[in-house]
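Help wanted!
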Amino acid sequence: MGDASSGASAGAAPPYRPYRLVRTVSPHSRAVSCVKFSPPDGRLLASASLDKTIAVLCSSTLATLATLRGHSEGISDIAFSSDASYLASASDDCTVRLWVLKSLPSPPNSNSSKSRGSSEDRCVRTLRGHASYVFCVNFNAQSNLLVSGSFDCTIRMWDVVSGRCIRDIKAHDAPVTALHFVRDASMIVSASHDGSCKVWDAATGLCLKTLIEPGKSPVAVSFAKFSPNGKFVLVATLDDTLRLCNLANGKSLKVYTGHMNRVYCITSTFSVTNGKYIVSGSEDNCVYIWDLQGKNVLQKLEGHNDTVISVSCHPTLNKIASAGLNNDRTIKIWVQDA
Amino acid sequence: MNVPIIDPLQGDFPEIIEDFLQYGSMKCIAFNSCGTLLAAGCSDGNCIIWDFETRGISRKLRDSATISPITSVCWSKHGHRLLVSATDKSLTLWDVKKCEKISRITLQQTALHARLDPGALEPTICLACPLSSAPLLVDISNGSSTSLPVSVSQEGNNYTVATNPRKFSDGSTPFTPTAATFDWSGEVICVGNSKGEILIVGTKTSKVYAIIPVPGGAVIKDIVFSRSGLYVLTNSNDRVIRLFENLLPHHNTINELETIDSSNNNTNNNVEEYDIVDKLKTNGTKCMKYLREFQDVVTKIQWKTPCFSGDDEWILGASASKGEHKLYIWERLGHLVKILEGPKEAIIDLVWHPERPIVVSVSVTGTAYVWAKDYVENWSAFAPDFKELEENEEYIEKEDEFDINPREDEKEKEEVIDEDAEVDIDNSEDTSILKASNGSYGELRYLAAVPSPEQSEQQDKYPASPIKLEESNNSASPFDMDVVANGHASSPMEGSEFFFAEEDGGTSLKRKRKPSAKGMEMQAEKDKKPVIKNPKSSSLSKISKPRTKYEFDSDQDDEFTDGFVF
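Answered by r_m:
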């Protein structure tokens, strides 16, 4: 590929240190659909599952701090508010729920029965309005807005305080698979199975831009996310490809391949804590780590027994969490050796 | 951040009422410096802070001691504090984040306007403009106050700096409120008096540094600085809004004024009976420069609450006539560009959003109307390879239009992107600008959103306010889409098998689509309108779109034939 050289040149920084598996937990009885570290400090780790529950774990001890029950169907996505005091979840029961995470039990005293008892009270709001499965959800940076995407092809924006639906955008021609606010919350990127990625003005709800790979028949977009500085969008398509697109001109700058992604909406992410990597799950049961600049696969993390559907990078530590589907049902924590 | 990809032709000034805010009866409003929060004072003494992004109520500042209508609200520099004046003659200073009252004092008279010192981060000094006496500088922490001079006159060799406008028998009514405002830095105060003069007064010294006579010489009702501090508007009783350029520097304003003052002294040292008023007027020419006036020469209406747009490009004035809701927008260079007309309710307050082309006007009924641009969908946003043209263009065929080989080469060339170029995903050069322009350390941009609990909401939310308010709030805006519990929570799609199929059992794209397609079809039937616009995307749309279209067509036909028969 000739990428090794550029990877090395980008690494005037120390050479790549591999990640290794440190812990495995199985808080769920069915496939895990999403795993996320909490902002801003990564204190919590939350996972959503088809077993209709959300597990909130202490990210260091991996003790279960709370199990959030209330959805009547499986959960596809979760999102933390920016101070991690609230959690939103998107479920196949067509609702979005808001959960309060304040005053979680401290890990050593965590009593599983107790936390279960309080779990019902943690749901502060149920947001109803989507006509089909809610597939993705996200907060803006101020956490006063919540955006949700659904199989009904719409994007809805919700007022977090009142639970009112502020805006209902007929956004796509197929299920909306991912939504992400840019850093300053002025724009939202949406991904859809219709093969397009659209950028929306958060204040007016107008479409600002459509990102389509030109000259090709559209391939379903399974995931999209803004880069930390908001200039690029990482786009995953169901042809085993991840692209880094320039928002200004819509052109893809970097293409990351090697993994398998044909079926699921696998999440990928930027790792910025030590070197710049792209991290993604894969349908060959591995977690892939690419060099952001060189596009070469730096490491394949093996250990899951089913598709790795979701990955999340710790915001400050060199730590990755990954979650597997039904044959696996585990959350694995990987750390980079010091 | 979205500025680079927003169409530059859109933006500028508002055109239509986009939304309205209703809670009780609002009297006065003010945006915080970044326009994310809108404070509103109500007639029952409450102060509401709207989250302007969600257009929902973020906080309620309620003081049991204040039940009288609020006359003005003013944010501190970084939005941490809010000053509220009410008709019970009180001034209340609030800590916005904690929702706590910092202090409250009662003046001799009701302040029509109260402004916080814009130079201080935690201001306690405020400027109050009472109904019928000179503006006061009040230290709200201890209640001490100083009257500001409103006029300088010459009686023989003595000159008097008067604080009471009643002394002057120049035809002005004694109950004329005096306009006063801080400049950008808070170092000086501009006082507009009943003789049609602007006095530049030092905030700390109360010394009059300069006088700027306003053409027309009519009573000055308002003085407004633009957001950048470069321009000043006056609104006079002679139905004219006048624009001045502020020549004073943003920083060390007082030093500059002292320099101007002393240089004048030097040149005129030998003249003993040098007219002090003339001297101050000479100083005045170095402080502000008269640019132009704005008025409606036909209707000659009185103006109310003129203001600048956030970027100083536009000037907004409201008609003060009863029973009309008219906003005039001028270019700063003088041209009238738009007259906006709202419901037949008089305007009582008006603000321009500091960063967006949005205006909020409060009507006499207590409702706040949000004026925004009538955004036109930019269709090229949906198709990246299309370009929108302003007008038709004649297509000129290229020489090699139908040549195969050279074109292909060219195409390939176009598409080559240096994939090895370094990309910076982390740093963003605009952060610094963003922070600097907002002056931003410690800026209170947002209040934490606290979701109100669902069940108890109806009972707990407004325990003290009358039921009427509750209702009005619940029907907050025309954009308020009722969160319809449309029964889909227990929809036929329920059932564990589905989810097995969906996520576990190899969720192929097709499989995923199928249930959703059904759902959409149901929805489409309910709404009787096509959810899907693009017929090529899925099998469903192929079914649903032609059908709805057919229905539409047949309806049309019926009407048409009916018309013909008659």
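OP: Thanks! One thing I noticed: Chain A touches chain B through 103 residues (CB under 8 Å).
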